[in-house]
Specification:
The complex is a heterodimer of chains A (about 775) and B (about 140). With about 775 residues, chain A is mostly helical. Chain A is about 60% helix and about 0% strand. Chain A contains 35 helices and four strands. Chain A has a two-stranded antiparallel ribbon with strand order 1-2. In chain A, strands 3-4 form a two-stranded antiparallel ribbon. In chain A, helix 12 crosses helix 14, helix 23 packs across helix 35 and helix 33 runs antiparallel to helix 34. By secondary structure, chain B is of the alpha+beta class. In chain B, strands 2-1-5-4-3 form a five-stranded antiparallel β-sheet, sandwiched between helices. In chain B, strand 4 and strand 5 form a beta hairpin. In chain B, helix 2 runs antiparallel to helix 3. Classes of the chains: A mainly alpha (about 775), B alpha+beta (about 140). Chains A and B meet through helix 16, helix 17 and helix 21 of A and helix 2 and helix 3 of B. Chain B: This is Trafficking protein particle complex subunit. Chain B: Keywords: Cytoplasm, Endoplasmic reticulum, ER-Golgi transport, Golgi apparatus, Transport. Chain B: Part of the multisubunit transport protein particle (TRAPP) complex.
Chain lengths: ~775, ~140
């Protein structure tokens, strides 16, 4: 609302008017009723009244809050003075006379006055009564000229008293209506508005004018100004009690005025002060609520059943719809019963509603059920509307299970969605992106870990791509079992977790991750290109790994090629070819080759031997190895990138054993070729693209196999050296070719993955969950 | 995303029906109305056994050229009917199920409100907001 500066006189006048209109003391005035009467009495054309109502914002809010009312009054004054109705005019027009309201109906006035005086002591419900003297404003301000008011001056004298009295009566009396009960704690609340029950009773002839059109847009918002007023009320019980002391001083309008002005000043202060939490429950209110709770349910830790609560709150005479909404807001755990905190929140909302505050859409944080003492309830004032209540889990009353309604609702969803995901078996699908992620992660990791970033990375890359295609998860499992001589078996099992975690983390960045990490969304559709029949292996693998992660979350990709061990074993470049060969052989391992694992070791030794053999060659050969490395490593995935983990393990092992095996001789050489051949056969069963790699691997294996035949005494046989050089070069070219092909495949796979991710994102429905 | 959501009482009168505002909203009402027959048919077919064994989610009731109608029935014979756009191919069964689950949960919350008389129209704001969240966002 625009800042409204009112003079003191205006302030008093307006507050009186507001109190008059606020027949229910709800701190907000509906467009029907006295407000309309008041505006009618202002003797303004209907369209002007409509304009005023629009300008003051009541239309937007759906009712007249105090500030809206004040602005409206000011606009009435503006209009009556002949100034154009503008929003700015409320503050710019100086020395505006107070708005004049002409009593339109004498009968009403008389009726009002009569009933008012009669009810002054007996202010039961405000709905029917409040017939404040027409000349109230005149009494107070003296600047208002009411034709019909003047005869009432005498009555006016009483009227100030009666409004003063009435508030006093209603709350403490606690008689008939429940409403009084509710207003009692906020005693200041009711007293305050009635402090100056509008000078304009008389003018309130009929209510409905065109301003009823303002009723159109009543929407329930919670505007700050009324809330501020609410706060001020809560703080002005002392002042209002002053008012209640005035029944005797009927003539002491000055006092009333003073008090009214004091409260008005309070209001102004409130309005201008910082934004207080309007939903804070004061101690007094809290105590009252607790007492009320006890009347229904003696046990403070117990519940109020829904039916009892319904009866209780129905007495407030709020519309059922609003009560229903209040219930929805306050029944935090949706159990159909109210705990003490919930009851207080509901009560507070009812009181607020009756005083003119709009019901919030969400429960304000200060009203959230808390497990706090009564004294603390007032301290929880936080920004209203902040629904994200962090402390709620800790709060639930001992007798109730602390569960936010959202949790209640999400849990079944979570469970079921996880079931869904489990049913749909997303695991194999996730393999692919995860592998690629793993690949990337590995690239990053290995890049930092190894002195020779290129080759292992390349190898891993190709490994991953191959594994993506082949999905030999069993290798992963088998790799696990390859504990012979492999000290890192434990670390191996930990690697998948680590990798899985890494993958999960990385995957969170990818488009597919939301599907995997968030339980509610259904799992992504299986990617046809990656639905290898080795899903069985995947299942087995994932059955191994599900224990480590929750279902529905990304399962650890089987063949993540982490290189923790490689980092641990700072194998020199020389080891790479060994690893490469080892990888080749390992990747070619099929599920059925688990028993052949010992061969891995042999082969690694063989690799080591080959590497060492090469090592023993001159440096130029050693230099070749870096070249061979990438090629060889490329060939690894070429063969079968199943268990990159195994491969890495192998690499580690080879790296670790390489130095040890340098001295070893030809012993391992014989066995390795056979496994290689067998693996080659198993490779043949794989994809055609693997076949060519197989061939290359076979070539490589053949080449490598031929190497053992070279006498180890390097410098002794130059021819042998040269022959080995030649062979290595051939191997090099072969592997280079292999590498390039695999790189191409990798690119294709990555593109495919990206396109699938994009597709998935497009197909993903709106987040309705 | 649903185009129309309806909650039908046991006696086959609507407790809540809400459609995406289009010019032919009545068409959705008719579709929901006609789908009630299919719902009853499915209930009676399955309901011969214990009610408990009956699946709450009824699945696709019937497809039309532009729309598909899904059904869900609670144990108290309150039916939820959802009309979705056929062009929205990404909507899978699981998602429909989850939407019905949310509907059911919200309906339960409405029922828990002591101020709600069973049989009245559902006027809960929370329910409205939940339904809005699953309706097609009409720009």
């Amino acid at each position: 609302m625009e800042g409204l500066t009112l003079s003191d006189a205006e302030q008093k006048y307006y507050s009186d008017l507001f109190s008059y209109c606020d027949i229910e003391s709800t701190k907000k005035v509906s467009a029907n009723g006295r407000v309309l009467e008041l505006f009618r009495a202002a003797q303004l054309p209907n369209d002007v009244v409509l304009q005023i109502m629009q300008l003051c914002g009541a239309k937007r809010l759906g009712y007249f809050g105090r500030s809206q009312f004040y602005i409206a009054l000011k606009l009435v004054a503006v209009a009556q003075s002949g100034f154009p109705l503008r929003v700015e005019s409320i503050n710019t027009v100086k020395d505006l006379p107070l708005p004049r309201f002409v009593a339109s109906k004498n009968e009403q006035e008389s009726r009002h006055a009569a009933s008012y005086s009669s009810d002054s002591e007996n202010q039961g419900s405000y709905s029917g009564v409040i017939p404040p003297p027409p000349g109230r404003g005149q009494v107070k301000k003296g600047s208002i000229s009411h034709d019909t008011v003047q005869p009432r001056t005498s009555a006016d004298q009483q009227e100030p008293a009666s409004p003063v009295v009435s508030p006093q009566q209603s709350p403490p009396a606690s008689p008939h209506t429940w409403r009084k009960h509710s207003r009692h704690p906020s005693g200041g609340n009711s007293e305050r508005p009635l402090a100056g029950p509008g000078p304009f009773w008389a003018p309130f002839g009929e209510a409905q004018s065109g301003s009823s059109a303002g009723d159109a847009v009543w929407s329930g918002h919670s505007p700050p100004p009324p809330q501020e007023n609410w706060v001020s009320f809560a703080d002005t019980p002392p002042t209002s009690t002053l008012l209640t002391m005035h029944p005797a001083s009927v003539q002491d309008q000055t006092t009333v005025r003073t008090v009214a002005s004091a409260t008005t000043a309070n209001e102004i202060r409130r309005q201008s002060s910082s934004y207080d939490d309007p939903w804070k429950i004061t101690d007094e209110q809290r105590q009252y609520y607790v007492n009320q709770f006890k009347t229904i349910q003696p046990d403070l830790n117990g519940f109020i059943p829904g039916s009892a609560a319904k009866e209780f709150f129905t007495k407030s005479k709020l519309p059922i719809l609003e009560l229903s909404h209040i219930w929805e807001l306050s029944d935090f755990d949706k159990d159909g019963a109210l705990t003490l905190d919930e009851f207080c929140a509901a009560f507070h909302l009812v009181v607020a509603r009756k005083n003119g505050y709009d019901l919030p859409e969400k429960l304000p944080e200060s009203l959230m059920p808390k497990l706090i003492d009564l004294e603390d309830s007032a301290d929880v004032g936080d920004q209203p509307g902040e629904v994200g209540y962090s402390g709620s889990p800790a709060e639930a009353p001992p007798s109730k299970s602390p569960s936010m309604p959202s949790l209640n609702q999400t849990w079944p969803e979570l469970n079921q969605s996880s079931e869904d995901t489990a049913i749909v078996h997303p695991v194999p699908i996730r393999m692919t992106p995860s592998k690629i992620h793993m690949q990337e992660m590995e690239l990053k990791r290995t890049g930092s870990d190894h002195a020779n970033p290129t080759s292992p990375l390349l190898v891993k890359t190709s490994d991953l791509s191959e594994e993506n295609k082949i999905n030999s998860s069993v290798k992963f499992a088998s790799g696990n079992t390859v504990a012979d001589g492999y000290s890192s078996s434990d670390s191996f099992t930990s690697d998948p977790e680590q990798i899985g975690n890494n993958v999960t983390r990385q995957r969170s960045h990818s488009g597919t991750s939301p599907d995997n990490t968030a339980p509610p969304p259904p799992p992504p559709r299986p990617q046809p290109s990656h639905s290898r029949s080795s899903s069985l292996d995947m299942n087995r693998t994932f059955s191994v790994t599900t224990g480590q992660q929750q279902a529905g979350v990304v399962a650890q990709p089987p063949a993540v090629p982490p290189r923790p061990q490689p980092s641990q074993a700072p194998g020199p470049v020389v080891h790479r070819p060994v690893d490469a060969d080892g990888l080749i052989t390992h990747t070619s391992t099929s599920p059925q080759q688990i028993p052949e694992q010992p061969n891995f070791a042999d082969f690694s030794q063989f690799e080591v031997f080959a590497a060492s053999n090469v090592n023993e060659e001159q440096d130029d050969e050693a230099e070749k190895h870096p070249e061979v490395l990438p090629v060889e490593k490329a060939s690894d995935p070429a063969s079968s990138l199943r268990v990159a983990k195994t491969d890495s393990k192998m690499e580690e092992k080879t790296a670790a054993s390489a130095p040890a095996n340098v001295s070893k001789g030809t012993t391992p050489l014989a066995p390795p070729p056979k496994p290689v051949r067998r693996r080659l056969k198993s490779e043949d069963e794989l994809r055609p693209e693997v076949d060519e790699h197989t061939q290359k691997t076979g070539v490589l294996a053949a080449v490598l196999a031929s190497q053992p035949s070279i006498p180890r005494s390097v410098g002794k046989d130059k021819k042998a050296i040269q022959a080995s050089i030649r062979r290595n070069k051939e191997t090099n070219t072969v592997l280079a070719r292999l590498n390039s092909e695999l790189q191409q495949q990798l690119k294709d796979v990555l593109e495919e993955r990206i396109s699938l991710e994009v597709q998935l994102e497009q197909l993903r429905p709106f987040s309705h969950l | 995303m649903a185009v129309c959501v309806a909650v039908i009482a046991k006696e086959n009168y609507p407790l809540y029906i809400r459609s995406v505002p289009t010019e032919s909203e009545l068409k959705f009402h008719y579709m929901v109305h006609t789908s009630l027959d299919v719902v009853d048919e499915k209930i009676s077919a399955m309901g011969k056994a214990l009610v408990d064994q009956r699946e709450l989610y009824l699945g696709l009731l019937y497809p039309t050229e532009d729309y598909k109608v899904y059904g869900y029935v609670t144990n108290s014979k309150v039916k939820f009917v959802m009309v979705v756009d056929s062009s929205n191919t990404a909507l899978r069964d699981n998602e429909i199920r989850s939407m019905f689950r949310k509907l059911h949960n919200s309906y339960t919350d409405v029922m828990c409100n002591p101020f709600y008389n069973p049989g009245d129209r559902i006027q809960s704001r929370a329910f409205d907001s939940m339904v809005t969240s699953m309706m097609v966002q009409v720009c």
